[in-house]
Amino acid sequence: MSDLSGERLAELRQTFDSIDASGDGFISEEEFLRHFPDLPAEALGSLEEAADADGDGRISFEEFVRLLG
After folding, report:
1. pLDDT by 10s per residue, the chain, length 69
2. Bridge partner list, 59
3. By CB neighbour count within 10 A (0-12 exposed, 13-18 middle, 19+ buried), where does 9 fall?
4. CA–CA separation, 53 and 56 (whole Å)
């Protein structure tokens, strides 16, 4: 994450926080679907596979940054 500008990190944090409705610091499948209701199931599955590095079923901010940074 250190190679990203402060501005880019702030943008990613704002986006992450807007998806993380529960405010628990993780994005769940339910929160993704609430934020992106038209996202096809196969796209969500691919997203989770690519982003969920530790396999815990949710996406942390660090995983989110690795995916979109």
Report:
1. 558 899 999 999 999 999 999 999 999 989 989 999 998 888 888 888 889 999 998 999 999 999 887
2. 27
3. middle
4. 8
Q: How far is CA 68 from the centre of its chain?
A: 8
Q: How far apart are CA 57 and CA 29, in angstroms?
A: 8
Residues in CB range of 21: below 8 A, 6 or more apart: 31, 34, 35
**Count of other CB atoms within 10 angstroms of residue 7:** 8
C-alpha distances (whole Å) from 20 to each of 4, 5, 58, 63 are 21, 22, 10, 13
44: amino acid identity, one letter: L
